[in-house]
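ugh ok fine here u go
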Amino acid sequence: MTGVLLLVGLFETPFDTLAADFLSAHMVQHLAVTLVVPPLLLLGTPAWLLEPWFRSSRAVSVGRFLTRPLAAYVLFNVPFTLVHLPALYELMLRNAAAHLLSHGVFLLTALLLWWPVLGPLPALPRLAYPLQMLYLLVQTVPGQFIGAFLTFAPSLLYPFYGEAARGGVSPELDQQIAGLLMWVGGGFFYLIPLGGVFFAWYNREEARTVAT
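structure:
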């Protein structure tokens, strides 16, 4: 429910209007849709709700392929990175259907991305704790490249924001703020689940030691 309410808050409130004029606010939307909402949805989804969809061996095979770490990593990061290229981002900003489609793709592929760490279905198992930590660490790399690309761009990358009504913040500064949000904020965010995985692993090993 928290994940659903967060989605409503991001796209059905005045914050969405703010994101139409400020790249930094739009970046907050992207980060929340990919880093916050999917973990909440997976943590809040019981296994029994998904099990009817995976009663056939074919569905399980497809599901296991899509949620394998490499497949999930590529399926999320390739479209997420490409969309931030100037031509595609401009298309997304100026075409409502493309904008809606991009956010839908971000959310669906982010669910796949987080599955190896938080997947609720035993038939599509999570990674072992050490591999989860490595997986989360590697996931920080694409966002850092995108963030650096935005932060150090010598000029405005997306003319749409140069045309937007704004006050007090230049579109170039707004672009730098958005890049830092992706580069620094997104990278540090992964430390939260990484730390959670580490302590879960530690507690499990400690319990095993006590039991023996």
